[in-house]
Amino acid sequence: MTFRIAVVQPITNPIGQDEKNIADAVRFIERAKAEGADFVCLPETYPGPWRMPASFDPTSAMAQAAAKHAIHIIFGTIAPLDAVKATAHNLICMAYPDGKVVQYRRTHPNGPWIYTGGEWWEFQYVAANEFPVFDTVHGKVGLAMCSEAYMPEVTRALALRGAEIIFMPAGTDKRRLWATWRNLIWSRAIENLALVVTTQNLFSHAERGLAMIATPEEIVFESTVAGLFTVDVNLDRLREMRASTDTITSARNYGAKQGVLGPQWQRPELYDAIHPRAQREAAE
Fold this sequence. Notes:
By secondary structure, this protein is α/β, with parallel strands linked by helices. Helices cover 22% and strands 24% of the residues. The longest helix is centred in the first third of the chain and has 15 residues, at 20-34. The radius of gyration is 19 Å and the shape is globular.
């Protein structure tokens, strides 16, 4: 079954004016629906906020827009934990067409350094420990974010839990990382037989974006410029690859290896040998 994803790579409002992103996001959502989208993917920390103390929460506005336009919305915000310590989880959320909102709290890397002292974010990031996946009428969705692309365990955990569509919105201009980041988005699709979607914030048209949709066999969309882009996708091929196994002649018909999530390739009995863990001390 074919469905449509809208990828938004916005010109984001600067820090201090980031609450304006909410109205901009609603306009993108309205346009995405008008163009027939079933999902609309916004960047990490968009609409925001970017800093603690958090001065606004976009969740209600995103839930209302999802219900009004009967669309799935992937968006970014933070979840304050302690105002005095400036601690927060970083979230990628999905609002359902009925207004329900679910969330993934970033798990990697260890905090808090990654969002402290930078040009854009300023909060004491606290890592979470869960990898939820979410059913939709179009397929099972996993959420992750940004440089977690460099940690294959994150998307593998989602894929092993059944995620077929992995939304992985990112933050800002990748600079020297751009080429490896682009490679890794497609790699996460290849190794997990999943559809992987990413986009990022742009603060000017001079910056280089990285909006992509990758299947295991090809990059079906990518853009470096600001805008809203709609792409028709289908999960039938990756589902076929997940359900089948690799053979000597598979390379004639498939652009990625079949069955890599199953017993033909997986050897969980070796995982402790691959990464030995210290034995727990015996209880006295």
